[in-house]
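Two records follow; treat each independently.
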Amino acid sequence: ELALLLKRARRSDSVELRAQIEKHVAIQSEKGLRRLRMLDLPRASRAFATVYALRPDAYLWHDGLVKYYLGDYHGAAESLARNAVRYEERFGGEEAASEERIWRDAAELKIV
């Protein structure tokens, strides 16, 4: 179902299709957060990967935490850095993405 939705999305500008995509983004985001709370990190990671497949510019900093705890420190640092930028762009610099940056720094320290 998801693959078909993505295929249709590439060929369409439909408002209905965008609504379906946003619905799946919300469902997969919540699923990933629920799996993270349950410490089911592999399934959380898959749910977050689905979110990014549907909406590559999604703000989902928890993806970086999951990658960190799975030992993917490079992936964690990259995800957290991207999410820090997204956060700051959305909120116009009113507040720094400090949590994202702290976790990114922690991931980078694991790499060196």
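The next record belongs to a different protein.
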Amino acid sequence: GTLAEEYGGLGERTEDTVQKLRTLKSSALWNDEVEISYRDAMRSIDPFRVVAVKPAMQTSVYAYVPIYIGLLVVQQVLPKFFPPAYAAAALLAFGPIIFAVMNS
């Protein structure tokens, strides 16, 4: 089977569980002991943080084509500005994804 099948997939059940855990996290019952349990549960439920990254991936995928075209234009028209433009493009393209992973 595939890796997704071995992990039982990441269907609606996993997303629902993650949402319930995040709701608990924002409640008044939160403390250090619950924090440790939350992190352990999240590691076992979503080891690759797919649920956290999914919204960022779905929206940032539309930015890749305009960013790529913009980089081609900068490379041809203003070649000395290409290195900083490349760094800015990487930040625009992957920043939301990295932010989602770091804040999950």
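Discussion point: The chain is about 75% helix and 0% strand. How would you locate this feature using only the token line?
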